[in-house]
Amino acid sequence: MAVDEGISLARRLWAKFRKEYSVFALYSPFFVRLASSTLHSPTTFRHFISQDLHFLKAFALAYELAEDCADDDDDKNGIRDLRKRIIRRLQTHDTFVQECGFELADEGASNGIATNKYTDFLLATASGKIEGERSAPGKIATPFEKTKVAAYTLAALAPCIRLYAFISAEIQGFLSSDDYESHIYKTWIDTYSSQILEETALQNEDMLDRLSICLTSEELEIIENLYHQAMKLLVDIVVNQPISDQQSVVPLSRMYEFDECHLTILCDFDLACTAFDSAAILAEIALITAPKADIDGSDQTQLARMSSADLRSTWDVLSTQYTEEFEQSVESILASNKVEEFDYESLCNALEQLAAFERKANERVVESGVLKGLNVEDIKRAGQSLIQDGCRSFFQRIVKNENLKADVHVLSYCWCNDLIASAFSSGDLNVLNVHSNELVYEESVTTGEIVKKMESPMEKLQAFNDILIDRKSEGKHLTVYIGGSVGDLLCLLEADIGIVIGSSSSLRRLGDHFGVSFVPLFSGLVKRQRELAEDCSSNWKPMSGILYTVSSWAEIQAFILGT
User: Fold this and answer.
1) Residue among 8, 11, 24 nearest 232 (CA)
2) pTM greater than 0.85 (yes/no)
3) For the segment 164-214, what is each residue's pLDDT rounded down to a tens digit?
4) What are the structural domains, with CATH classification, of the chain?
């Protein structure tokens, strides 16, 4: 594991695994139900908080073993202080359970397989039984070898404290002041989002950093593996919490019977599936391959291309002009009076201005000749590394899930269908359907012309509707659209569930101007869980004027598929 000097090891590990694992814990049926105050069965929450007793006992023993392994007096004192914090929690555990409004659980109550797996893993680590460690269990004799075990133990402890602090703080942040004050699990939320728990998490992380200073890269790799393993086991505990009293809105694949109801997922490509705009990728290909033609004259047998200097200058002019005119078009739309309620018709009329702009911009690109002379193999190679990991893993799980009756479509303004197809085929996702513009080739080399199939929000919506015509004739169906640009607005609103990924300020501003509400997905799910509890119905419907926002593909996967 590479080490960045000056950056906390513990913070780095949390940053690396937080987005994936903490999201799956937060979006679990248990925590969505807890946040919505709909854990109606008293045994469900009591079982959950009763597990704390087992955690705390394991923590206390693990800290005791770690203290014994520490070589430095300051380290011993620091770990001893952490153990004292846990003992104080143990002493007040019964009071905490009663303050939450529950009777104490039977001391011999079942602990749950997932919980046992984590506590067994933790105590095995604290005892020196560590996978990948060269020292044989029970033969860790030197002070340095023992110090390593102390560091390993704190690595196995750190994600538990940090994960529960994160989840409780997230839930607290999503609740309104009125909902929070009347929340039936307010005591739990207060305790786990408290400054005291945050201090414990920070103290554990600081001690992990201190104990890891002299470790080798191989030993730091073990630290990372232990942290990762602990995080996975902790998420397993959350998702395996027993809930039996009513239906949950997550994951979507469990709420709907997709062997009977067809799921259609549609998404944009640029800056939704990718971290970069495809136009910039094509420009980079042109710039990288152009110098070869300048130097060896290889273009003489191909379509003539401009010099690399002229190419770079032309791309810069086109890019600047596009950005400036796009911003002017948006500002022109926003100059009209803001509507008080969601007004889809006015939004459609306004987006016609952007349609004319996009067509002119594409004409300038063709006339400039910047897309001339690109080799199709260069384009396909560039596409293979474009898709974000979270996006790829989500679609892989969709297409490989035999229990889902689903299809996936990519709708994009991208000039090059081959670039998109290559991007998805690299992840064994060539079953996805791609709808975009296409470059024209002569003997595998681009002519600079574009076959224009999708240049406006209206054309993207037409493709969306054409796809759904067949699905509607098949009976029950559900559509999810994922996008992050202005061109996606109409499709997002027409889908049963519209999910906005990314941080396009233009999309937010235009949507807000025409009465569209942007709601964090987790917050929206909490509200829907309440509605489900009240009237046993939580159907997703198009044209509600509500779009759900996420910051990662992990959130989308957690919502639709779960862990």
Assistant:
1) 24
2) yes
3) 999 999 999 988 888 889 899 999 999 999 999 999 999 999 999 999 999
4) 9-243 (1.20.910.10), 261-294+303-561 (3.40.50.1000)
